[in-house]
Design a protein that fits this description.
Strands 1-2-3 form a three-stranded antiparallel beta sheet. The protein is elongated, with a radius of gyration of 18 Å. The chain is built from one helix and eleven strands, in the order E-E-E-H-E-E-E-E-E-E-E-E. It folds into two domains: about 30 residues, N-terminal domain of TfIIb (Single Sheet); about 55 residues, SH3 type barrels, CATH 2.30.30.40. Helix content is about 10%, strand content about 30%. By secondary structure, the protein is mainly beta.
């Protein structure tokens, strides 16, 4: 007898939190961990594209792994009394699918490792 799991089509992981426990609810896919809902058609389009996502900085330059960027506005850092100042250079960035809109993984001098939004940086 054939197992039931052979007939099922695997669902894509959640684009928000990367949870593998997604399920279908009508025409939508739902993540039970972060409650994110997205269209199954949009997920199929992303698979057809190869999942290639273009990440741009605040002025529209395309970012890549290893780039150096500068911060374009003061950023408050949770748990720290000081902020990351305008003009701070961040070297050797890595593009990731982070939490929320955070898509840059980096190490900021004086603050340590963190994730930044591409909308608050400019490519050098």
């Amino acid at each position: 007898m054939k197992p039931v799991t052979d007939d099922l089509i695997p669902l894509p992981p959640c684009p928000q939190c990367s949870s593998e426990y997604t399920y279908e609810m009508g025409a939508l896919l739902v993540c039970p961990e972060c409650a994110h809902e997205w269209s199954a058609a949009a997920s199929e389009d992303a698979d057809a594209e190869g999942g290639a996502r273009v990440i741009k900085d605040a002025v529209g330059n395309v970012l890549a792994d290893g780039d150096t960027v500068t911060v374009i506005k003061d950023l408050k850092v949770k748990g720290s009394a000081t902020a990351i100042k305008v003009g701070t250079k961040v070297r050797n960035i890595r593009l990731v699918d982070g939490v929320g809109d955070h898509d840059i993984d980096c190490k900021v001098d004086g603050f340590g490792p963190m994730q930044l939004k591409s909308s608050v940086v400019k490519k050098v």
